[in-house]
Amino acid sequence: TGTSFHVFDQGRFAKEVLPKYFKHNNMASFVRQLNMYGFRKVVNIEQSGLVKPERDDTEFQHLYFLQGHEHMLEHIKRKVSIVKSEETKVRQEDLSKLLYEVQLLRTQQDNMECQMQDMKQQNEVLWREVVSLRQNHTQQQKVMNKLIQFLFSQMQSNTPSTVGLKRKL
User: Fold this and answer.
1) Average pLDDT of 158-169?
2) Helix (H) or strand (E) holding 7
């Protein structure tokens, strides 16, 4: 009827025709390209889309693909949806925001690592001080024990025996 085109032998079409016009010989890629330009696969009633047809015949049609109306071919254009370009813009904004936030997180992480390093160094200094203070405490305890022993011994040697002595009036 001049409103569609048929591919009667997909294997031969892919092998002989596609390489002449495309960088591939993949029928599925060709069908994907057709879909991007608005072509649709025609499913006949006898095929019903459920049972595999007996013959290898695939038919495609497009509203502006009509025999004898070559001037209409200029209306066959690749589909570009406005929604997708807006989505891409939104995605670009999201990506920019995300990259900015990642940079902020990296800066915060670097700052925290510096603080952590400082705290580790301060902790080491504090532990050294604790060890030094414990040693000083132990030394002071020894000196205190010696002083107590000395005083105790002095008190015992200076105390006269009070047994048998009377008090003076």
Assistant:
1) 62
2) strand 4-7
